[in-house]
Write a structure and sequence with these properties.
The strands form four sheets. Strands 3-2-1-4-7 form a five-stranded mixed β-sheet, with helices on both faces. The chain has a four-stranded antiparallel β-sheet with strand order 8-11-12-13, with no helix packed on it. The protein has 526 residues and is an alpha+beta fold. The longest helix is centred in the middle third of the chain and has 18 residues, at 252-269. It has helices spanning 4-12, 17-24, 28-41, 45-50, 53-59, 63-68, 76-85, 91-99, 110-124, 183-197, 227-236, 252-269, 277-293, 303-311, 408-416, 420-431, 440-450, 455-467, 474-489, 519-523, and strands at residues 137-150, 157-167, 172-178, 203-205, 213-214, 224-225, 239-240, 327-332, 338-341, 344-347, 356-361, 365-370, 373-379, 388-389. Strand 9 (338-341) and strand 10 (344-347) form a beta hairpin. The chain is built from 20 helices and 14 strands.
């Protein structure tokens, strides 16, 4: 309905039809009606100022009001109650009940019924504006959407979950991806947000996620902050104040931040292929930097500008030490001399296989205790399940030959058992391939096939190859080893055996044909 007080005021100021229509948002007919009333009633600008709204409305009767008196007025209060108690209740159901009532008055059609309900909601469903104080609160939540992540180990598609934190006064946003939404990721995300903001707000407002609150008894409406979550809050000197149940407007800032992340982060990154969480988080950091530093809002400022000038100075200081979650577990050492926790495997000295040990878990380290003695410490594995962290000192000697199977180090270690020439040849074979793994089969054939029965012969063939600066291949080494076999199989020249008789001294012969008596002649006594 046109605002005739504004129209008449503009008429008294001498504005044209076009100017009044543009300023008051009315029609030319409304301006004409206002001019006619002013002329017929002799209304002056002073008289207009003294009129009440009711008196002014009487000058411009609305024929629609008289028409509506013949219609049955819908009971929208009852409709709202039904909608709140039954989330599946629709306006179509309400209209059908309205039409089926026993009143003799005329009934509104469905479209007019919906229009009147919209007007009722606009008049009665009022929303209070929450005024946030700088440094007062930080709202946290998980983004509903995820980003596909290709597992580099098994190639299986997995998803990354995005944690979102926002300071509602400045709108400063923090976002980071995790492989799950468990307590460890939840608390680690809070620590990262505090570090980004370089300070701690007075309160943290989460949703009623299982990582934040719990019920002490099933069916109990009261919820309590989880112990580990409370420990983190105590360390940073803040308070956990969960949002009220079924009151989404209490955390409207978090919902707005999640919507921003969905559009500005996930919308840009979801269609690309990501093989690692670190790579994904680098890309997320770039997108969040744009949201905080480059996007300007209605007042012309960025989130970061308002944060640095008004909010950062009033945040509480960070503690000297970063909060680390500590969790103790009792585990049994497997036959493969590894303990398993959170689906990851960590080695211990092989002599402890079958023993019960204690494990201390933090966000970054895994420490294994036998009583009060530390026997192993590892960097904590994250991401793909089933990863192994093995200390070579924990491996039995007979198992070390399979350590690092199908790798350059593995082949060179095997070659070292033959000799330095074999190591040099194997290194040359690996180096000549653009893709090193393409030389693994040649190395395997040389070490396993040619060197299985005669290590010395393989080392000698490799030494010959190195000396002649030949091109190392399986066939070349095989020919050299065959040549060595051929040389060893050649027979030595036949030589007469040395006589064991005494040599007869040479005698001088007086003349050719002379007769010489033998020794037998003298034995007969002649």
């Amino acid at each position: 309905m046109a605002d005739f007080r504004v129209i008449m005021t503009l008429v008294f100021k001498g504005r044209s039809y076009r100017e009044i229509v543009a300023a008051a948002g009315c029609s030319h007919r409304d301006v004409s009606v206002a001019r006619k009333v002013i002329a017929d009633r002799g209304i002056t600008e002073v008289g207009l100022a003294g009129m009440s709204d009711a008196e002014l409305a009487g000058l411009f009767p609305d024929g629609r009001a008289r028409v509506s008196t013949g219609y049955d007025v819908p009971d929208f209060v009852r409709v709202v109650v039904s909608m709140r108690s039954n989330p599946h209740f629709t306006l179509l159901q309400a209209w059908r009940g309205y039409v089926g009532s026993g009143s003799e008055l005329r009934k509104y059609g469905y479209s007019q019924y919906c229009h009147l309900f919209g007007e009722y909601a606009a008049r009665n469903d009022l929303v209070a504006t929450l005024h946030h104080e700088p440094g007062r609160a930080m709202f946290v939540d998980w983004a509903g959407d995820t980003i596909p992540l290709l597992d580099a180990g098994g190639g299986r598609p997995v998803v990354a979950y995005l944690f979102v934190a926002v300071l509602p006064f400045s709108g400063m946003v923090y976002c980071r991806a995790f492989m799950d939404m468990q307590t460890e990721a939840w608390i680690s995300a809070h620590v990262g947000a505090f570090e980004l903001f370089a300070g701690v707000p007075q309160i943290v407002v989460p949703d009623h996620a299982s990582t934040a609150t719990h019920r002490k008894k099933q069916g109990d409406a009261a919820r309590f902050v989880n112990d580990r979550y409370q420990q983190m809050a105590d360390h940073y000197g803040t308070a956990i104040v969960p949002a009220r149940v079924r009151k989404p407007r209490d955390k409207a800032a978090a919902e707005s931040a999640v919507n921003t992340v969905n559009k500005r982060v996930i919308g840009y990154l979801a269609e690309e292929e990501w093989t690692g969480l670190a790579e994904l988080n680098e890309a997320i950091a770039e997108r969040v930097h744009e949201v905080n530093h480059e996007l300007r809002r209605v007042d012309g400022t960025t989130r970061f500008e308002r944060f640095t000038t008004e909010e950062a100075p009033v945040l509480c200081a960070l503690p000297d030490e970063v909060f680390e979650q500590v969790e103790w577990r009792q585990v049994k050492v497997g036959r493969n001399y590894h303990v398993t926790t959170d689906y990851q495997h960590y080695s211990v000295p092989h002599a402890l296989a079958g023993r019960l040990l204690r494990v201390r878990l933090t966000s970054s380290r895994v420490t294994v205790f036998d009583g009060h003695q530390v026997i192993a410490e590892h960097q904590r594995k994250k991401g793909r399940k089933g990863q192994y962290s093995t200390d070579p000192a924990h491996v039995p000697v007979k198992h070390r030959e399979v350590d690092g199977l199908w790798s350059r180090r593995w082949f060179l270690d095997r070659a070292a058992t033959f000799g330095p020439a074999t190591v040099q040849v194997i290194g040359q074979i690996l180096d000549r391939h653009a893709i090193e793994a393409q030389g693994y089969l040649d190395c395997q054939n040389i070490l396993e096939t040619l060197g299985r029965r005669n290590k010395q012969k393989l080392e000698a063939a490799c030494q010959q190859l190195v000396n002649m600066r030949g091109y190392p291949t399986y066939s070349m080494i095989k020919r050299l080893m065959a040549a060595i076999d051929s040389d060893q199989d050649k027979q030595a020249p036949v030589r007469a055996a040395a006589s064991n008789r005494k040599s007869t001294p040479p005698t001088d012969v007086a003349a050719a044909g002379a007769l010489v008596r033998g020794a037998e002649y003298y034995r007969q006594g002649r």
